[in-house]
Design brief:
Number of domains of chain A: 1
Structural class of chain A: mainly alpha
Shape of chain A: globular
CATH class of chain A: Mainly Alpha
Order of helices and strands of chain A: HHHHHHHHHHHHHHH
CATH topology of chain A: Triphosphoribosyl-dephospho-CoA protein
Strand content of chain A: under 5%
Radius of gyration of chain A: 17 Å
Number of strands of chain A: 0
Largest sheet of chain A: none
Distance between the termini of chain A: 11 Å
Number of helices of chain A: 15
Oligomer: homodimer
Helix content of chain A: 55-70%
Chain lengths: 277, 277
């Protein structure tokens, strides 16, 4: 019987082990400077922070601790979004209500201190994000701790921050709305049979074909993001080879990280609900 | 900066991530019922027990806890030998002397209680071992807890048990002699450059070509074990393709687990000495 913190760590590890996941680092594909081993080390380092959330620690502080641990490897940002999504899910599981309503409840209880810790997490790692909306420049996450006074002044909670970031960031959009895509991925993984990493790869392709990946949009623009969505659909329909698509996306540096984050969240939910590995 | 328990867990994960490792499960090869994901889950479950050893817990109790956690997956025995080797290394590291002398010191301090816990660990998982030597049938590890009275009666310590098992088991032989092969693998990994999983795969092939794998000998007999050693040498010399050899060994169910265990130990030593991932 695995603990909630163990399931959270295992979800991160199973996500990166699932293959093929077009564009993302997986067991069979990696970038020269962002390798499979960096994700493995990231998951090892994240566990302490995830365990804090499972023990009832504040979302913000637990998240920042997990990101600090994740960053103790030389690949850079490996699982920032996945940990952002999983930390509130861990809190919901620890509170005994791992459901959309349970996630909404966890978010509703977050504070300005949680938002401040979220900003502090950016001190540990470079994360690719879109520019903030007009009038929110002082809240640009890339400012890290420098943005904390503005967070306090505006009385911005972690939940408020997710609401504001939802239009540009897929993970924030999940957290702001009870994680519908995450629970859908969990259902998908549970409905299939066979190796868990095969099921997670199938759920990934399905999610990639359904919604535009906001990380790809932030890095490569809306046209490329739409191309990724369309071609994932073609792979699902058997019109493209997923493995060839995976190699092409990696070659072009197209890395649909948000979709991978949601798969990590879905794996965590499925594991908590009893998915056997 | 990773903790000792984190390095131990990371060593288990990097070991199984290293490829090609002829005959063993790795990132690219698995058996239908013993898959990459089982090893990942095994490493997740082992962490608590390894953390106990890092906190100064007894070798036997820490080991048994790590094996209990490792077993919380459906693949069966994934890392029994690796955890057996790594647990005393963790204790040596925690005591500030991760060296052959440090390992010998840890072993010298083990007790009959540690040996009893070692036997109890066999309750959690089926492990392939050779028959015990004549006159030691009551100490057959496959008896699990049933052997504990005999352990007590003979006053057998964990170190004494490793001494007795050394002729038939490569991991016991390591522990009984200050882990010379383990430290050699660590040196090898540190001497190379590039991705850590490539370096560990190279160190594995080298170790496989040098000494007969006792797990292969227990499962397939001495002739097959010698063939494995010889052909690993041929792969090292460029006369065989390591990837083809890996596929053939997996096909034949030849699984040099002891050599993989020693690579896991070597990875732990290298990580503790500052190997960057």
């Amino acid at each position: 019987m695995r603990s909630t913190a163990e399931n959270a760590q295992l979800a991160l590890l199973l996500e990166v082990s699932s293959t093929p996941k077009p564009g993302n680092v997986d067991r069979a594909r990696e970038y020269p400077d962002l390798r499979f081993e960096h994700f493995v080390a990231g998951a090892v380092g994240a566990r302490e922070g995830l365990a804090r959330a499972a023990d009832g620690g504040p979302v913000g502080e637990s998240f920042r601790a997990a990101i600090a641990g994740m960053s103790a490897q030389s690949g850079g940002n490996t699982q920032f979004g996945a940990i952002l999504l999983v930390t509130p899910l861990v809190r919901a599981a620890a509170a005994g209500d791992l459901s959309p309503a349970g996630v909404e409840h966890v978010l509703a209880e977050t504070t300005v201190a949680d938002a401040a810790e979220f900003y502090r997490a950016f001190e540990h790692v470079d994360v690719a994000v879109e520019d903030p909306p007009e009038g929110m420049e002082d809240l640009d996450v890339r400012r890290g701790s420098d943005a904390v006074p503005a967070v306090r002044e505006r009385g911005l909670t972690f939940a408020g921050l997710m609401d504001r970031s939802a239009p540009t960031d897929g993970v924030a959009a999940e957290l702001a709305s009870g994680c519908p895509r995450t629970f859908e991925v969990a259902d998908h993984i549970e409905a299939e049979s066979g190796p868990v990493t095969d099921r997670a790869a199938a759920a990934y392709l399905d999610a990639l074909a359904t919604d535009v990946d906001t990380f790809v949009r932030a890095q490569h623009g809306p046209e490329t993001a739409e191309e990724v969505r369309r071609r994932a659909g073609a792979a699902l329909a058997g019109e493209e080879d997923p493995a060839a698509l995976a190699s092409e996306f990696v070659e072009r540096g197209i890395n649909p990280g948000t979709t991978a984050d949601i798969v990590a969240g879905g794996l965590f939910v499925a594991l908590e609900r009893g998915l056997e590995v």
